[in-house]
Amino acid sequence: SKTSLILAFETSCDETSVAVIRDGRKVLANEVATQIKSHQRFGGVVPEVASRHHIEQITICLEQALQTAQVDYADLSAVAVTYGPGLVGSLLVGVTAAKTVAWAHHLPLLPVNHIAGHIYAAQFVQPIKFPAMALVVSGGHTELVWMPAENQFEIIGETRDDAVGETYDKVGRTMGLAYPAGPQVDQLAQQGQDTFAFPRAMQDEAGYDFSFSGLKSSFINRVHHAEQVHEQLSQVDLAASFQAAAVDVLVDKTVRALHEYPAQQLILAGGVAANHELRQRLASAVANQVRLVMAPAQFCGDNAAMIGAAGWMLEKHQVRADLDLNANPSLEF
Ligand code: KG4
Ligand code: ZN
What we know:
Layout: E1 5-10, E2 15-22, E3 26-34, H1 36-40, H2 47-69, E4 78-84, H3 88-104, E5 109-113, H4 114-120, E6 132-137, E7 142-147, E8 154-158, H5 164-174, H6 182-189, H7 213-228, H8 235-260, E9 265-269, H9 276-286, E10 291-294, H10 304-316
Parallel strand pairs: 1-4, 4-5, 6-9, 9-10
Antiparallel strand pairs: 1-2, 2-3, 6-7, 7-8
Bound molecules: 5'-O-[(R)-(carboxyoxy)(hydroxy)phosphoryl]adenosine and zinc ion (ZN).
């Protein structure tokens, strides 16, 4: 059959990214312009600032991606774009760029759900075998997604409050670390020990929902209390104790879900999937249960390559959007 060559756009949050993907699995180019520096002084992503950066970066990323991949518009088979969930002003930049290219070059437009993109990043390791279970952990999402077949998604559990990445970032901020603090908390945790006994919320409850706000509060309270009484706390032990609590819950719920759902594969995806302890603990916990496929670290954070991989699935199933496609900040599966 004809070669698939997809141009993909991702602008849902604070990375502007354009990629070129061949046959869903081969990354020919993946340009990522991060805005992290611009948001750091605010301690988090400022939507207005994000949209403006996307507008400045999108054409630069597009030209660079085409050049790196050594492809011309005429070679493309489709254009894929994240149209939700995410920040509306940010999403609109990618959606507008994708629609423009699709219109100008008479190409099909593939509407990609950002979470599906994170999940399909696993395809850069190996083709996904269905039925599959995915644990999606990012700055905005913490979800267990059951996939009975290609392009079928059922959220069986999700966070009732904060996402796990968001919790990492807030906890890190309390420790004086720069945004996004997840990678630094991960590094510190590797040198410390779980000595603080932070709560594992909903660990023993039925169902697959998560909650991280209790863990966040108890961490912040502990640090503030220490400041008041001038007690010195070990930074590495704090990080290790927080991480142990977060990872415990994620691993336990996932293992439990795999007892109920007959998955052939478990996929670990999203920005927090780069976490060392989560990767290790999940791998050993499910070793005798299913094959674990973890997105390669460079495709865990937001990027357009994963959007191209998910777009390929839509192309295969002839799912297309019209040129009136709109951004949907609260898009669900
Ligand atoms: O998927 P992503 O790039 O953006 C969203 O869609 O949210 O995820 C970003 C999140 C941030 O909260 C960041 O702190 C977290 O992923 N993160 C990590 C690690 N690397 C990134 N959290 C824990 N450990 C890491 N190694
Ligand atoms: Zn993401």
